[in-house]
């Protein structure tokens, strides 16, 4: 096997990426403290052509060297907005017709493996602060909650790891029903 180089991968330019179809998924970051986590989320969103990122509260916004270190330029390709309050962002997305799901451990959450997206629907997932998770008032405003099953001694994952798992899973499910960007 020969390892592929950048030319072999036929990567899109930033302009081509901006003009391309996007996966009907938006990621909302609720007061994420680590700029490296923010950058990692941007990079994952770029990989799956996620429709955008909403940075809320204390979540840092580009340009920042620490974001760029892990985003590797994805902060330039992925559309993003800033909203001072996550609750306002969730309400705005819902008013625009998005189904908003918090990624959180709550009573009656839907396990990620059991989540089935509907054709024609747009989704937003809210990822929370590294210590406190998604704020309770934001959880209350969401249309539902999805949870990543965990079976070890720890019952939390790094927010960028959580983003990768959730985005990958939802992307695959949307692709299966012909809704994901390819």
TrEMBL record:
The GO biological-process annotations, alphabetized, read as: methylation; RNA processing
Query: GO cellular-component terms in the record?
Result: cytosol
Q: Give me the segments passing through the membrane.
A: none
- Domain of life according to the entry: Bacteria
**Which keywords describe this protein according to UniProt?**
Methyltransferase, Transferase
| Alphabetized InterPro entries for the sequence | Alpha/beta_knot_MTases, rRNA_MeTrfase_TrmH, SpoU_MeTrfase, tRNA_m1G_MTases_N
Residue span(s) of domain tRNA/rRNA methyltransferase SpoU type? 25-167
Any single GO molecular-function term of the entry would be:
RNA binding
What protein does this entry describe? RNA methyltransferase
């Amino acid at each position: 096997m020969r390892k592929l180089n950048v030319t072999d991968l036929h990567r899109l330019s930033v302009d081509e990426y901006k003009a391309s179809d996007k996966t009907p998924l938006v990621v909302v970051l609720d007061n994420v403290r680590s700029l490296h986590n923010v950058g990692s989320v941007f990079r994952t969103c770029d990989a799956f052509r996620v429709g955008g990122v909403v940075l809320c509260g204390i979540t840092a916004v580009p340009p920042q060297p620490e974001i760029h270190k892990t985003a590797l330029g994805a902060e330039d390709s992925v559309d993003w907005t800033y909203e001072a309050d996550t609750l306002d962002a969730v309400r705005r997305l819902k008013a625009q017709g998005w189904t908003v799901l918090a990624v959180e451990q709550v009573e009656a959450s839907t396990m990620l493996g059991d989540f089935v997206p509907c054709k024609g629907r747009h989704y937003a997932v809210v990822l929370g602060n590294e210590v406190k998770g998604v704020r309770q008032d934001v959880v209350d405003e969401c249309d539902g909650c999805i949870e990543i099953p965990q079976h070890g001694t720890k019952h939390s994952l790094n927010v960028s790891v959580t983003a990768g798992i959730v985005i990958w899973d939802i992307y695959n499910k949307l692709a299966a029903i012909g809704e994901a960007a390819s």
